[in-house]
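Structure, all two chains, one model.
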Amino acid sequence: MTGPAGSGQGLAELVGRVVDGDGDPVPDALVAIVAGSVPMPEIALLCGGDGRFSVRLPPGRFTLRAHGAPGTGEAEVESPTEGEVRIVVGRS
Amino acid sequence: MVELRSVTKEVSHFESLEAVPAEPPVTRGHAGSATAEVSRSVRHLVVAGKSGPIASPFETVLGVDERVRILDTDLAPWRMICALRMRGPSGAGAIGTGWFIGPKTLLTAGHCVFSNHFFGGWASTIEVIPGLNGNGTTSAARPYGSVVSERFSSVDRWTEKEDPDFDIGCIHLDQPLGEVVGWFSVGALPPERLESFLVNVSGYPGDRGAGAEQYHGRNRVLQVTERRIFYEVDTYGGQSGAPVWIHEEEGSPPLAVGVHAYGTGGTPSTVGVSSNSAPRIIPEVLDTLTGWVEQDGGWPQG
């Protein structure tokens, strides 16, 4: 049956940061994977005080949605990806 | 029938046990020793049985997110439901939901205790906060405090293949916090009994209240497969591990029948419906979770 990439094989680490409209880190933001090429569980990632988060994803396209004090924001990512993914929250 | 093998995170001072369950179709729940005051939310929100339409709790408001915040989380059954704060070995954090099934035992999604995606394996620590009701550490926000555990279990089909059909996990506590807040009855109901039942799902989503407020949703079972139960209830990341429960009739106690784990993206195309889903409590799962409770000292006699 269709499922997440089992046993951790083929996963690539994605590192991201949640920032506000000025580019400042949003501490304690939450990030959920709301759409993807493979089923992802309904967990939410908890960012650190520097707005950073990390997750290991299989190859594919994913939509990450962040929630922080300034508001909500989304980013589309293609895994594997190089560099840090930034999600801007609170932008109108 | 697939035989499930219990897999427990290795901890030096803890002896791993194979599941040695009894085979009750339903485990006995407990309302807890805390106040027996009846929750208004239960009266207004919780659905029971199979018959009748589902009325909106706010009949003058249409087209809104159907989830409703639970404010009296210090009362049963809401206090049996816990916000989880997970940490992996790297320090990476995540939030989820778990619920008591025994005095020292919580059931949750397998990916809340073991995930190659989120923790690179087993979680290191999980903070368990029964009935969390807002940010902060006051007694109003945390009516029953919180405890931290480092002992978790899942099943081999989850830890080896991360198969969504087997996405269940367990948190073992040292403290019998369940005696105070109570625990759910859990039942392995056959598909024909579950179909069309009205189900309740309550947990801690990340898109509302920063994962610190409990939200309840309800709807009808859409489909039941060998190992999953499918329903259309508003949920979001952070509600993974929440109880999916029924009331067999009005006024009957809650009976948990699944562990919420996936949104619509987790529904196999072969099922033919767009819905969210939970691994179903089937006899093998009931045997496994009975073993987990017994590993923690079991249920009280009588």
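Chain A touches chain B at residues 1-8, 11, 28, 30-36, 39-48, 53-57, 65, 67, 72 (CB under 8 Å).
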